[in-house]
Design brief:
seven-stranded antiparallel sheet; about 25% strand; two-stranded antiparallel ribbon; about 150 residues; 4 helices; alpha+beta
Length: about 150
């Protein structure tokens, strides 16, 4: 069914088990921000320059496993199982968790993700906040590339 996904990539198992599942929180009011809605399906973003850039920067294969909030973003899984979000509305890319269970829990409970800053960006905006280099709210790119 997902022949283009290597069987060893964590996305293969996630999609095998969850394709077609729509996770909707009980309330849109979350702990730190609005909660997210997830619709699990293979989300192909190979033609998306933003996705290719992040795959390269993280030195991993990112595979989209869910659409978030009716297409506002994509939940991506890296080859080591870490989960990231990629906005379809602006250039934010953000860390959601070390594994799918953590990412889903955080999204459904409304915890803020940690944005990543590309080397060519002076700052990134997420949740109405600006994050610049050295901001403790950013996900550490050094840790992000150690697979």
């Amino acid at each position: 069914m997902f022949e283009t996904i290597p069987s060893t990539h964590p996305a293969a198992a996630i999609l095998s088990e969850l394709t077609g599942v729509k996770a909707v929180p009980h309330s849109r009011e979350g702990v730190e921000c609005a909660t997210g809605i997830l619709e699990f399906r293979k989300v192909d973003f190979n033609d998306d320059e933003h996705g290719r850039i992040w795959s390269s920067l993280l030195r991993t294969e990112l595979i989209g496993v869910a659409e978030m909030d009716d297409g506002a973003a994509v939940l991506c899984v890296a080859a080591d199982g870490r989960c990231f979000g990629m906005s379809n509305l602006h250039d934010a890319f953000f860390y959601e968790g070390d594994r799918i269970e953590e990412a889903v829990e955080r999204l459904l409970l409304g915890y803020q993700a940690r944005p990543l800053l590309r080397p060519d960006q002076a700052c990134v905006r997420l949740y109405g906040n600006h994050f610049a280099a050295g901001d403790p709210g950013l996900y550490d790119m050094g840790a992000a590339t150690q697979v």
